[in-house]
Amino acid sequence: MATSVAVNEDLTLIRRLRLASVVEASTLLTLLLVAVPLKHALGYAIATRVMGPVHGAAFVAYAWCVTVTVSGGGDWTRRELARLILAAFIPFGGFANAGLLRRKEAAAAAQVGRR
Questions:
Q1: Which residues have CB under 8 Å from 17's CB, separation 6+?
Q2: Which end of the chain has less Cβ packing within 10 Å, N or C?
């Protein structure tokens, strides 16, 4: 049985992962739907030079959060891990994982409430 501190830490990690997922998905959409068209349609190459690294940093932060959250414990299946990883490469993928992460967060919060 997990300790109260470990369960609280799992809850914090899942919340952080949810935030990183939304940020990563948002920066990818901004890059694809705003910066790339600005570059190619209007010649504003600065748009991709700014959004590219911003999205890159968000992607690395998301990958780190997935690694830390899943390796930190909790009840993660291989399928859920694969879903979290694949979501980073698909536009809207981070948003599609919102339900999974919300359920994981609710389960962790329920464990905190039981203690």
A1: 62, 65, 66, 69, 84, 101
A2: N
